[in-house]
């Protein structure tokens, strides 16, 4: 999985519960990856946040339709729907790439 190859910090959770997550990646992306992003933003782990959003930007730019949809719905949309995250998102938007920003604006325009 491209996510596990790029974000080492969540590899252990995936490997521990691989049989659960393997056929339903949406659950892993939303329940583990999105939660990890929130945690990194709360802890102001700048280098990790930069790396996460570079990964998201890379996927949005070069991924197939399935992985792009997964990132947009399970991660970006989930972040935007989280209550009380507006300030965290605003503080970290400087790390968002153009495609991430475009994805966010699509969500807000619906």
What does this 3D model show about the protein?
With 110 residues, the chain is mainly α. Helices cover 78% and strands 0% of the residues. The protein has eight helices and no strands. It has helices at residues 2-6, 11-16, 18-21, 25-42, 46-62, 65-81, 86-92, 98-109. α4 packs across α6 (65-81) and α5 (46-62) packs across α6 (65-81). The longest helix is centred in the N-terminal third of the chain and has 18 residues, at 25-42. It is globular, with a radius of gyration of 13 Å. The mean pLDDT is 93.
At a glance:
The protein has 110 residues and is an all-alpha fold. 78% of the residues lie in helices and 0% in strands.
Categorize the overall geometry: globular
The largest β sheet comes out as:
none
Residue fraction in strands: under 5%
The string of secondary-structure elements, in order, is: HHHHHHHH
List low-pLDDT spans. Answer: none
Distance linking N and C termini: 30 Å
Task: Tell me the number of helical segments per DSSP (H or I, 4 or more residues long).
Answer: 8
Average pLDDT for all residues = 93
In percent, how helical is the residue content?
over 70%
Q: Structural class of the secondary elements?
A: mainly alpha
Overall radius of gyration? 13 Å
Q: Please give the number of β-strands.
A: 0
